[in-house]
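Dear colleague,

Thank you for sharing your sequence with our group. We've completed the structure prediction you requested, and as agreed, I am returning the results in plain text so they can be pasted directly into your records. Please verify that the sequence below matches your submission; if there's any discrepancy, let me know and we will rerun it promptly.
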Amino acid sequence: MRVSIPGDHAHHHHHHADPSKGDWRLVLAVTVNLGLTVAQIIGGILSGSLALVADALHNLSDAMALIIAFWARRIARRPADAQMTFGYARAETVAALVN
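Please find the predicted C-alpha cells below.
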C-alpha cells in the first residue's frame, strides 16, 4: 500500500501538446502590434504628438521581437540532423540573446 505524502510527485501525467499550436498566437500578437503601430503613427502625426510617434516605434520594436521569437520557435522544432546532432532547440536561446 502506497501512502501519499504531501509534496510526493509519484503521479505521472504526459501532456503531448502540439508545438505549433502557439504559432497563431504569435502571429496575432505581431498583427495587433503592427496595427497599433500604424494607428499611433497616424494619430501622432495628425495630433502633432511626438509621444505617440515614440510609443509607435516602441510597439514596432515589440513586433520585431515577436517575429524573432516566431522564427526561433519554428527553427527549434526542427529535428536533429547530420549538421546539428543535438537539434535546433538552442535557436530560442540565441533569439533571446538577439532580442
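Summary note from our side: The chain has three helices and no strands.

Kind regards,
the structure core
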